[in-house]
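Subject: Sanity check before I submit

Could someone independently write out the structure tokens for this chain? I want to compare against mine line by line before I put it in a report. The sequence has 98 residues.
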Amino acid sequence: MTRRDNENISMKDALSAFIQKNKLEKGMDKVDAREAWARLMGNGVNNYTTEIELRFDTLYVSLSSSVLREELSLGKSKIICMINEEIGKELVKKLVLR
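---
Independent answer below. Compare away.
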């Protein structure tokens, strides 16, 4: 049987402990990166985004518009900084637009 703590802890702390105990940080980072892209880029870019994948420290984004891909490639470093700020940690070091 599992041991039960009688301490009152916040839901945020309980979820953080659960994520760390079960080694789910990488999966949560992937979800955070997708959500950050969607929030920062808005509906205009999201309509042309077909796939977002975080592998190690590289964010791969597939776009259906070649014109949009070229426009976004001009501001890659700024996009990386904005995504890392939104997530709250240095997660993305490289952005690949496909």
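---
OP: Matches mine. For the report I'm noting this point. The longest strand covers residues 49-55.
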